[in-house]
Amino acid sequence: MSSRNETAVNVIFFDVFGTVVDWRKSLLRLLAEFGAREGLAADWPAFLDVWKAGYRPAMDAVITGARPWINLDDMYMERLEQIAGDFGLADLSPAQKQTIVNLWLRIEPWPDAIAGLTRLGARHTLATLSNGSFAWMTEIVKFGRLPFDAIVTAENAKVYKPHPRCYQTALDLMGLASTPERAMLVACHNYDLEAARGHGMKTAFLPRKEYGPDQTQDQAPESDWDVVADDLIGVADKMGC
Amino acid sequence: MSSRNETAVNVIFFDVFGTVVDWRKSLLRLLAEFGAREGLAADWPAFLDVWKAGYRPAMDAVITGARPWINLDDMYMERLEQIAGDFGLADLSPAQKQTIVNLWLRIEPWPDAIAGLTRLGARHTLATLSNGSFAWMTEIVKFGRLPFDAIVTAENAKVYKPHPRCYQTALDLMGLASTPERAMLVACHNYDLEAARGHGMKTAFLPRKEYGPDQTQDQAPESDWDVVADDLIGVADKMGC
């Protein structure tokens, strides 16, 4: 970015799942620990793949209006109940199900996250812009000791990314509705950046292997994003922080 | 509070202006510095009294529906333009007016605030519940290095405290709509706690001299609030943090 553009960005928003936290690695460990503790044998990696795969269709149903607003944690509970039987988990108690859903509250940041955010936060205001519920995101950020200044999520707009209202609500809340170029979105998903750019926001892309070592999607920028870096420390470097 | 109640509180909300930040002392200093810098002589303490006095009536007009939603910073600009002439400030430039309104972004916490919040935050999730705009509150918290986990303000509900929707929105966002007793409000204003209690929230009162040494209002609890303390360190003590 030119130095003019750098100084123009006041607020940096971040996608969180994938971009800031390594949800899959954390959940594989947490699910295995849960299974061992409860004496439950299951193919946890396969379970996680199928469980997470319910995420996009459920969100899309909210975006299209096919179903009313539902929080992400409630979606994961719903999906867990749909698929548990397929993984030999039909007899989970309600408490066990809640424990599984709540494992999301203990996912760990990527190794570069705290250092990168700390540097960016010294010169910019940092906020989440996640599809997670507001309460979930608050807890995930607190658990990870992530130095965000504010939590903003899809719940504030009652619709999921990439619906336009999500980005508009984020800009409105930060007082940037008429100056969206003073906001940036950092994400490891090209579709998210495309939507943010559609609102006039700056964009920063970094590739992540959030789905594991075999991931091929979103490993390269699919447009001329304002910043492209290897990780959040790289974003801080390129922003001159 | 009993130890049972202590452990039941997950999220502690805080009123901010008066309760966490000493806005008047900060603004008296910042206004005097601004006047000296700009060569503007005015009775700044009297100006501040009259400026701040526009706050409650303007918010009440939103609460009653007499006027549509307007953010607190816009209210302060509106009020500044109404009263500037009465204080020999009729010739302020637009930039000077914006500078004056933005002095609110550099108000300092009370001396006990960071220590008290840090202790409370080790065991609880901490969020603002302020009448300030979302962007303003984010900046005030960042400037003061206040260890809040999330920003929630009247702007999230598009109505001011003590309108019920304000408290309900805060509970909804924290996933506590059906368990409001797991939330607490800390405030130096009895009216705010009364409204929070009306929603089933726990309450903590502390007296502040936010209007200066002669303040007589809100110097004592006007009900049997769950916690009464001298300051935020005292709240932490009584919460067993």
Question: What do these coordinates show?
Answer:
The structure is a homodimer of 241-residue chains. The first copy, chain A, is α/β, with parallel strands linked by helices and 241 residues long. Chain A folds into two domains: 3-22 and 108-238, HAD superfamily/HAD-like (Rossmann fold, 3-Layer(aba) Sandwich), CATH 3.40.50.1000; 24-106, Orthogonal Bundle (DNA polymerase, domain 1). Chain A is built from twelve helices and five strands. The first copy, chain A, has helices at 3-8, 23-38, 44-53, 55-63, 72-83, 94-102, 113-121, 134-143, 154-157, 164-173, 190-198, 232-238, and strands at 11-14, 125-128, 183-187, 202-205, 227-228. In chain A, helix 3 (44-53) packs across helix 5 (72-83) and helix 7 packs parallel to helix 12 (232-238). The radius of gyration of chain A is 18 Å and the shape is globular. The model of chain A is unreliable at 1-7 (pLDDT under 50). Chain A binds chain B through residues 71, 73, 125, 127, 133-136, 138-139, 141-142, 149-151, 155-156, 173-176, and chain B through 71, 73, 125, 127, 133-136, 138-139, 141-142, 149-151, 155-156, 173-176.
